[in-house]
Design brief:
The complex is a heterodimer of chains A (697) and B (58). In chain A, strand 4 and strand 5 form a beta hairpin. Chain A has 18 helices and 17 strands. Chain A has 697 residues and is an alpha/beta fold. Chain A is elongated and about 140 Å long. Chain B is mainly α and 58 residues long. The N and C termini of chain B lie far apart (45 Å). The chains are: A alpha/beta (697), B mainly alpha (58). The interface between A and B is large, with 43 and 35 residues.
Chain lengths: 697, 58
């Protein structure tokens, strides 16, 4: 997908028609729009999302009023005022023109009459130049760039750092699933669940009363499990919100003179506590692993001693090892001569004496087994003793760690009590709230734990019920068949669930690798980003031999988020190649990937110059086409220098303010001034566009 | 980074290990869901899934 132009007509600040053109060059892949605050940068970003998906970004205020105020006021009663956005782009050798159109008719009453409400149309021109009207415009756009991914390609730069916050984890997980076509699998799982219910309903009709009873019981359990899963999800969201509030309070306390020292002390103690907790977990795991491998030895008291003493008593009696082997005696008897030279004739006294040895002689394999058993008994005895030593030693470590934990907990509580008793009312109030949050979070965690147990128990019960349904004797063919269908749906669902799990993890690892590479290119800090199994984006640094999670500032959050977007764009590009290669199992299904532009509003936000420099260096590398909306103060200086060789097109959004005393401003680009802020000659504020000529182009 | 290849092989093994009916349901539904993925009219897809299962498990 390569953007060619965007045309807005009477859309928010833009009066009449205005067109934006984007650089399609691979080398000069950056298009920059400069605009003052309120000039319409966020409006233009939202023109894209509204046109393509009929949606607005969270920062777009007053979304119900998109018709330009001046155009509306100038219209005579009874006339129609169009408000539209047209996006033109190329995708895989075709040209697309998407148009979204709203028409309001001005009538005498206050409320406008809606003639057309966000109507969507799509024209596609193929390689031969033939244009056709797309019948399913929304579906086609979704196939090119799924709505679930669009947030990562059209985004508000000031909010991009939110990607690393708990609210975004689900969004990241969804994006990962979409990028690898796993939406298909997710849908299959969902639809198979519903199909199973229908098939079960059919089975119920033909089933015996006993099977009917089992089906009813199973369905009740499933309903109960669904309710509990929803409760758990709700609690999880509440917990995230509580965590965020707690972090906010602690950050406030860190900034208050009266609380700074105590909060920092608490930070240290909490860190120590969590490290201690990790050590407890590690020791417990070690004990569990060893016990599961060698725990049986605890029940073998006396067994090895018995084996060894039995063997010893045989040895003392001279029975083990035997002085000679049975095979040797047999060979002597067969040869007819003893080792001392005496002839051994059958029936002679010498023959009989040698033959008697045969019964006393040992069998080689039995003796070998005895020897082995003895060695094993000794070895097992040694391992058993070592196991007890290990358990005793680790038990001691655990006791020490637990005591430290208790001590740290007390210290943390003391800090809390001190903060709660400070003279500053603000600190006291913050600490009180923090304490309440902590208790609420603890309560939530307990509830989640309880729900997990109940959900697990219900899952087991449902499986048992399914087995009972399956096992109940089917007398009729119809019932048998119906059961087989239910079973096939259930098994297929299990297969899809496993595929989903495997593929999600697979793509998470691929993304993680790309995020690390992009992050290393942008940030000068030796931090390492990780997209962990819970889809959290985290940063860590090496401390000695261990990695330690670092607290992220706005700059780091922004770089981390941009690295994620870059990684996602890169993976989407790879999917195109994979889809073309096709054929490989599980790979040619669903979303085919794509080459996408990145459109961002104010990506430099409030970053300091250092971060601004790094982010500016990284942006042109994120995607083959980049569109950036910036203010004068954000975009000039270090940013424009960094973009210098990559800018293909530049435009200025002139903001006409209705404030009569506002100072007019220009923006100087390549020694030429362009109107940046102007006083409006009428009662309305509005905006227009001027393309920068020459210079960087 | 952990290689993605073993995961693909795990999926292939997963499909090889299930019975013929289940495998056919899985493959058939992949195709069906892919066809329906970007359709704005989701109605009737569950009925389609039921019909496909009935067709396969006769």
């Amino acid at each position: 997908m390569k953007l060619r132009s965007l045309t807005v007509e009477n859309f928010r600040q833009f009066y009449g028609r205005c067109s934006l053109h984007f650089s399609a060059s691979d080398e000069k892949n950056v298009t920059v729009f400069y605009g003052a605050n309120g000039a319409g940068k966020t409006t233009l970003l939202n023109a894209f999302t509204w046109c393509l998906y009929g949606e607005f970004t969270p920062a777009f205020e007053n979304a119900a009023h998109i018709v330009n105020e001046r155009a509306w006021n100038e219209a005579a009663s009874g006339t129609e005022v169009p408000c539209k956005v047209i996006a033109e782009f190329d995708h895989e050798d075709r040209k697309y023109m998407v148009q979204r159109n709203t028409i309001h008719k001005k009538i005498s009453s206050a409320e406008p009459q809606v003639v057309r409400d966000a109507e969507l149309s799509l024209d596609i021109t193929d390689e031969s130049g033939r244009t056709t009207r797309g019948k399913t415009a929304a579906d086609t756009i979704n196939q090119i760039l799924p709505a679930r991914l669009s947030n990562f390609f059209f985004f508000d730069g000031e909010r991009i750092e939110n990607l690393v916050k708990p609210d975004a984890y689900k969004e990241i997980e969804d994006a990962i699933k979409t990028i690898l076509g796993l939406e298909v699998v997710e849908r299959a799982i969902k639809h198979l669940g519903a199909a199973s219910k229908k098939l079960e309903a059919e089975l119920r009709e033909v089933a015996t009363p006993e099977t009917q009873k089992f089906i009813d019981e199973k369905q009740d359990m499933e309903k109960s499990r669904e309710t509990k899963l929803l409760d758990k999800e709700k609690l999880g969201k509440n917990l995230d919100a509580l965590k965020r509030e707690q972090e906010l309070i602690e950050s406030k306390l860190r900034n208050l003179q009266e609380a700074k020292k105590l909060q920092e002390k608490r930070d240290r103690l909490v860190k120590e506590f969590s490290e201690n907790q990790e050590s407890v977990g590690a020791v417990r795991k070690e004990i569990a692993r060893r016990t599961s491998r060698q725990g049986y030895l605890a029940f073998t008291k006396g067994l090895f001693d018995g084996v060894i003493s039995t063997l010893e008593s045989h040895r003392q009696k001279g029975e083990i090892p035997s002085p000679m082997k049975r095979q040797f005696v047999e060979d002597l008897l067969k040869s007819g001569e003893c080792i001392c030279g005496t002839a051994l004739q059958d029936g002679s006294e010498a023959f009989q004496k040698v033959k008697n040895w045969k019964d006393r002689a040992g069998l080689a394999d039995v003796e070998e087994a005895w020897t082995r058993l003895c060695a094993q008994a000794e070895e097992s005895q040694r391992i058993r003793e070592e196991l007890f030593r290990f358990l005793q030693e680790r038990g001691g470590t655990l006791a020490k760690l637990t005591a430290t934990q208790t001590f740290l907990r007390e210290q943390i509580n003391e800090v809390g009590a001190e903060l709660g008793a400070t003279e500053s009312e603000e600190v006291r109030k913050l600490e009180d709230r923090r304490h309440t949050i902590e208790q609420e979070a603890e309560d939530h965690k307990k509830q989640v734990w309880g729900l997990d147990r109940e959900i697990e128990a219900l899952g087991d019960e449902i499986k048992r019920k399914e087995n009972q349904i399956q096992a109940s004797q089917a007398q009729e063919m119809r019932e048998k068949k119906a059961k087989m269908r239910v079973q096939a749906a259930k098994k297929a669902r299990e297969v899809f669930e496993q595929i989903l799990r495997l593929r999600t993890d697979d793509v998470r690892l691929q993304l993680d690798e790309r995020i690390k590479k992009t992050y290393a290119k942008i940030s000068y800090k030796a931090y390492v980003p990780t997209l962990n199994e819970q889809f959290h984006l985290e940063l860590s640094k090496a401390v000695g031999l261990e990695d330690e999670t670092v607290a992220k500032g706005t700059g780091e959050n922004q770089i981390l988020s941009l690295s994620f977007v870059g990684a996602l764009a890169d993976l989407a590009r790879q999917r195109v190649a994979e889809a073309k290669e096709g054929g490989r199992s599980g790979h040619s299904i669903g979303f085919q990937g794509g080459i996408y532009p990145i459109v961002m509003d104010s990506p430099f936000g409030s970053l300091d110059e250092n971060y601004r420099d790094q982010v500016a260096a990284a942006i042109p590398l994120l995607a083959p086409q980049v569109v950036v909306f910036v203010t004068k103060s954000q975009g000039l200086g270090v940013v424009r220098e960094r973009f210098a060789t990559r800018i293909g097109r530049e435009s200025v959004i002139t903001y006409f303010t209705h404030k009569s005393d506002a100072a007019e401003e220009d923006i100087v680009l390549d020694a030429r001034g362009y109107p940046y802020i102007r006083r409006s000659q009428n009662a309305f504020e509005w905006a227009s566009l001027t393309e920068v000529t020459g210079g960087k182009r | 980074m952990e290689s993605a290849e073993p995961k693909r092989m795990q999926i292939e093994k997963l499909l090889a290990d299930v019975d013929e009916d289940t495998r056919r349901v899985v493959i058939d539904l992949f195709k069906l869901e892919q066809e329906m993925l970007y359709m704005s009219q989701p109605y009737g897809i569950v009925e389609d899934v039921v019909a496909r299962i009935k067709e396969i498990v006769k």
